[in-house]
C-alpha cells in the first residue's frame, strides 16, 4: 500500500493574516486612546487657562473696588476746589453757592447729580441752559456751565440785560463794554409781551437785513408799528404784518435815500432825511 503524500503547513504563515489583523486592531486602538488622551489633556489645559482668567478678572475687580472704596472714604475724595467754566458774565462765587457744592462733599457724588445741578442753576439764572460736573485733578471739581444763546440786549437804565433765545431776560445787568455789539439793542420795551413778539418777528427776517440792524425801538405810535435803527444811520419804519415782505427792498432804497434817512415801509415805500430831533431820539449822531 502506497503512502499518502504529506503536505507541510507553516503555522505562522497560516496564522499571519489573523495575527496581522489583531496587531492592526491593537495599533488602531492605541492610536485612538492616544487621541482621546491628547484631547482630554487639551481640554484640561483650556479649562485651567479659563479658570486662571476668571480668577484674574475677579482679583482685578476686587482690587479696584477696594482701592476705589478706600479713595472714596478718604479725605482725598473731598472737594478741595471748584472751577467754574463757561459763566463769563455771572458771579462765580454766587454760582457755586447756588449749586450748594461744599468742601466737605465728595467729588464723585456730583458726577451722578448732573440733572439736579442743572435744575438748581437754571432756576436761579435764566442764562444757564445746563451744567455738568467733571473731575479735574484728584479732588478738583470742574463745573461746566452752558449758557443760552443771546439774541440781543434789553436796555435797562444805563446798563443792558441779555435777551435769551427762549425770550427770557438775563438776570444780570451788564455794562456797555460787556455787550456784544454785533447783536441788536432793544430800547423802550416795557412790556415783555411786545418784546417777545418783536423778537420773534426780528428772527424771522432775512439774515442780511438782521445783520444791519443796530437797534429796535419800542417807542412806537401804534402797536402795529416796528422801528429799526440801522448801523448805517438810517431808520426803517414798518408794519409788523408786512415788514417781512418789504425789507428785501431796503438795500435798493438806501442807495437812493442816502445816509441818515427815514425809510418808511408802512404804507408803500418812501424816504426823507431825518430831522435833528429824530436823530437825537434814535441816538444817531
Summarize the structure in words.
With 285 residues, the chain is of the alpha/beta class. It is built from nine helices and eleven strands. The strands form two sheets. Strands 5-4-6-7-8-9-10-11 form an eight-stranded mixed sheet, with helices on one face. A three-stranded mixed sheet has the order 1-3-2. It is elongated. The mean pLDDT is 82.
Portion of residues within helices = 40-55%
**Strand arrangement across the biggest beta sheet:** 5-4-6-7-8-9-10-11
Structural class by helix and strand composition: alpha/beta
Question: What integer value in Å does the Rg equal?
Answer: 44 Å
Please count the helical segments.
9
The secondary-structure element order is HEHHHEEEEEHHEEEHHEEH
CATH topology of the largest domain, by name, is Rossmann fold
